[in-house]
Amino acid sequence: MKNHDTHSTGYLTYAIVLIVLLFLTTLSVFITGIHLGAFTVALALLIASVKVATVLTYFMHLRSENLFLKLAVAGVFVLFALVIIITFFDYLFR
Q1: To the nearest 5 percent, what fractions of the chain are helix, strand and coil?
Q2: How far apart are CA 79 and CA 84, in angstroms?
């Protein structure tokens, strides 16, 4: 059996991540108030993806996991992006 090292993250790191997440939340609320057409949804999804990546990296400790798990999570993001892109193209050509 493999020894599991403990991964500790300092409070300052969590405070910085909290400030970043609060800023991104404020930015996404601000973006929804601006009329950019279909780009409003795309920009909101991009901001949400950055927030998800931040949560996965710091709160779920993905940065300290092995390469296989990182690639599996990246594959899920790629699949999600493909579904969103296909949905936008379907909406565009209706």
Answers
A1: 80, 0, 20
A2: 9
Rounded to a whole number, what is the distance in angstroms from the first to the last CA of the chain?
A: 56
Instruction: Tally Cβ neighbours within 10 Å of residue 50.
Output: 15
C-alpha span between 63 and 7 (Å, rounded): 10
CA–CA distance from 19 to each of 15, 22, 25, 76, 81 (Å)? 6, 5, 10, 26, 26
Residue-wise pLDDT for 45-90, tens only, equals: 899 989 998 999 888 888 888 899 989 988 998 998 899 889 989 9
Whole-prediction pTM: 0.71
Closest CA to 58 of 3, 4, 19: 19
Dump pLDDT digits (tens) for 26-46.
Answer: 999 999 888 888 788 889 889
Nearest to 47 by CA among 30, 72, 63: 30
Are 62 and 69 contacting, i.e. CB atoms less than 8 angstroms apart? Answer: yes
